[in-house]
Amino acid sequence: MSQQEQLAIVGGRPLRGRLRASGSKNAALYALAAALLTAEPVRLHNVPEIRDIGEMGRLIESLGGEVTIEGGDVTLDASGVTETVAAPERVVALRASFLVMGPLLARFGEAGCPSPGGDAIGVRPVDVHLTGFRALGADVAREGQNFVARAPRLEGSRVFLDYPSVLGTVNVLFAATLARGTTTIVNAAAEPEVEMAGDLLNAMGARVSGHGSNRITVGGVESLHGTEFSIIPDRIEGGTFLLAGLATGGDVELEGAEPTHMDSLLTKLREAGARVEVSDHSVRACVDGPLRAVQLQAVPYPGFPTDLHAPMAAALTQAEGISIIHERVFENRLLYVGELRTMGGRITTGGQSVIIEGATRLVGSPVRALDVRAAAAVVIAGLAAEGETVVRDIVHLKRGYPRIEERLEALGAEVHAR
After folding, report:
1. What residues have CB less than 8 Å from 267, skipping those under 6 apart?
2. Nearest CA to 243 among 364, 349, 325, 124?
3. How far is CA 169 from the centre of its chain?
4. Hey, what's the torsion of the CAs at 175, 55, 233, 340, to 10 degrees?
5. pTM greater than 0.90
6. 336-382 confidence digits (pLDDT tens)
7. Which residues, 6 or more positions from 232, have their beta carbon under 8 angstroms from its beta carbon?
8. Which residues contact 357 (CB under 8 A, 6 or more apart)?
């Protein structure tokens, strides 16, 4: 896909209808990396059809694995893996690429990887990962552009994470599955995607407990086996469509969702005046009157997710009053602000806080998708704006939102790629 591919949006139409939740982008990437822990095939279902999945698949193939992608089903066979150092050209596009370190180190006794790529939304130090590997007995060093870890056999230990990093938690969890003895990960990330990673590992024969809390216990085993597993629904993609419905005065129902993963968002939607209906596996949000301003903080789970900060800000341009969002996770999350200002958004920033004055008449404009979630923000703004918005660099959008044009059109939006 060309970096310059564009998405044209004719705004002013309320989004209405039902969508099926996609599989989680982040959880699927973790699952692909986990397959490196075993020489037996791992078959995954409900995998989103997005660019990042292909990037991770190509990284695994460059290590000697086999990856077969058939729509939403992905089969991985890592029996032929012989390379334990990730190639820079395969790492540059994807921050989750660093997750190959834990599985390779645990299974082969050594692993190497350059600093990962991905969105430019802030510093994402790998210190949490490396400190965890050291706590498990690995020698860790910088050799040229690569971080390299070596250990004939990892030893279970008590691992304290300075920060509840999601990727750091998952990487240390992967490494601990094949360590000798018991590992306790303290101050672990509790995100649903981390919990799912633990469930997948258990399905492969691991002994993981406490995942989904801030203290994870791992009993090391000699080896893991293949399995068949379904990826959880994507709470971020689903939340983005609910916010798009609110911004346009619409009514969107998300089927196949996991509402308990979306507590923080649904609470804020209700606070903003939306009518929210929840059943076991669906969420509906609709607007019966004016939206109200809200205040929130983007913090680690179960708090409001940083990945919904930018989409929420776009929706809050249509809420009456002064809304404030405090960003507590990534220091460069505010890249979207200038693009929304271009469209008429009255937004000011102070440090890591965003102040949004609404309700605002947005006007269709040429804007850029500067990262995955900033892309979602300008799409939401374009759907709510008067006239045509043209979003450039939508390669970022398609990293996190499968079949985005088709899914928006199903809700009544007028969109098309150029």
Report:
1. none
2. 325
3. 14
4. 120
5. yes
6. 999 999 999 999 999 899 999 999 999 999 999 999 999 999 999 99
7. 23, 24, 27, 46, 192, 193, 196, 258, 261
8. 322, 346, 347
